[in-house]
């Protein structure tokens, strides 16, 4: 069985890059995604 | 199977057709009794849950009518409640869903008393039972299921017993209760907005009026105006109820 390893530093850098590429409204949970499409009243 | 379904339809039709016309003296007595009972803080704290059920069903009906998907309702032990719906994050549908809660008890009261005043007390109680059963099916927590069951059983026994006089008195009592609770609930909301420092800031930002103000960018009506509209609607329904009862 082949094991694919990703270094912690590489994973952290990828996450940082992904976050930077996201639209701002998805970075703040009260502005987008589930918070606005699922409404509680 | 078909026979039992037929007998169930017959039973509902029989109760739907019950006609009653309570005497003016009885109506006055019921109005006074309900007004006094709801003024007692201990009783109001419990009875208010029945008003919350109708408030949430107002949100549900508006959400359905505007094409939103309703996930369910939750009632809490402090008599607050929440309706969860999915759909567009902006627009008239969301706005209507937000503003439908506070006027709902008053509108129900007006409907019940209008039916009762035209002699259709059985139809009024049948509609009320249907709304409670729908609320029960949509309830998604223990307090909600328990509250809806209690309300449905309480009036359901009277509905099933089918005594025209008692059905007539019950509909009048329900109408007066919802007319008063609609006004009182709106006044409570007004108090939250007028004294925000006594509550958390999140309590104000989560009210139906505040959310309605943000619901549709094309119609930027401030929360204060929505509050006034809720008050006018609930007071108008209450005036209509008492006019129908004593005309």
- Sheet with the most strands: spatial strand order of chain B: 1-2
Kindly report the oligomeric state of this protein: heterodimer
Mean pLDDT score of chain B, rounded?
92
Rg of chain A from C-alpha positions? 16 Å
| Gross geometry of chain B | globular
> What is the end-to-end distance of chain B?
47 Å
Question: Considering DSSP H and I runs of 4 or more, what fraction of the residues of chain A is helical?
Answer: 40-55%
Q: Helical stretch count of chain B? A: 11
* Major sheet attributes of chain B: 2 strands, antiparallel
Q: For the largest interface in this structure, which chains are involved and how many residues does each contribute?
A: A-B, 6 and 18 residues
Instruction: Tell me the major beta sheet of chain A.
Output: none
Description:
The complex is a heterodimer of chains A (41) and B (247). Chain A has helices spanning 8-21, 24-27, 34-37, and one strand spanning 38-40. Chain A starts with 7 loop residues before the first helix and ends with a strand. The longest helix of chain A is centred in the middle third of the chain and has 14 residues, at 8-21. Chain A is 54% helix and 7% strand. Chain A is mainly alpha-helical and 41 residues long. Chain A has one domain (8-37). The mean pLDDT of chain A is 82. Chain B is mainly α. Chain B has one domain. Chain B is 74% helix and 5% strand. Chain B is built from eleven helices and two strands; from the N terminus they run H-H-H-E-E-H-H-H-H-H-H-H-H. Chain B has helices at residues 2-16, 24-39, 41-65, 92-99, 104-117, 121-138, 142-161, 164-194, 201-205, 208-215, 223-246; strands at residues 69-75, 81-86. The longest helix of chain B is centred in the last third of the chain and has 31 residues, at 164-194. Chain B is globular and about 50 Å long. The model of chain B has no long low-confidence stretch (mean pLDDT 92). The chains are: A mainly alpha (41), B mainly alpha (247). Chain A binds chain B through residues 36-41, and chain B through 59, 68, 71, 82-90, 94, 97-98, 101, 208, 211.
């Amino acid at each position: 069985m082949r094991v694919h390893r990703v270094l912690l530093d590489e994973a952290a850098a990828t996450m940082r890059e992904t976050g930077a590429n996201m639209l701002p409204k998805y970075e703040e949970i009260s502005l987008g995604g589930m918070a606005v499409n699922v409404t509680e009243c | 199977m078909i026979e039992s379904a037929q007998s169930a339809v017959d039973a509902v039709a029989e109760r739907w057709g019950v006609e009653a016309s309570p005497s003016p003296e009885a109506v006055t007595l019921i109005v006074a009794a309900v007004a006094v009972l709801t003024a007692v803080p201990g009783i109001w704290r419990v009875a208010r849950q029945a008003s919350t059920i109708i408030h949430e069903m107002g949100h549900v009906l508006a959400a359905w009518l505007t094409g939103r998907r309703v996930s369910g309702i939750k009632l809490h032990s402090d008599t607050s409640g929440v309706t969860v719906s999915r759909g567009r994050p902006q627009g008239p549908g969301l706005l209507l869903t937000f503003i439908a809660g506070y006027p709902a008890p008053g509108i129900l009261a007006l409907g019940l008393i209008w039916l009762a005043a035209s002699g259709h007390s059985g139809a009024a109680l049948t509609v009320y039972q249907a709304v409670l059963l729908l609320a029960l099916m949509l309830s998604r927590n223990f307090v909600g299921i328990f509250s809806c069951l209690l309300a449905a059983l309480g009036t359901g026994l009277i509905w099933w017993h089918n005594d025209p006089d008692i059905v007539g008195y019950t509909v009048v009592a329900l109408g007066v209760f919802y007319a008063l609770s609609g006004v009182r609930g709106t006044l409570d909301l007004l108090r939250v907005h007028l004294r925000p420092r006594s509550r958390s800031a999140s309590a104000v930002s989560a009210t139906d009026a505040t959310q309605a103000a943000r619901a549709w960018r094309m119609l930027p009506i401030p929360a204060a105006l929505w509050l006034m509209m809720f008050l006018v609607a609930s007071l108008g329904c209450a005036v209509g109820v008492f006019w129908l009862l004593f005309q």
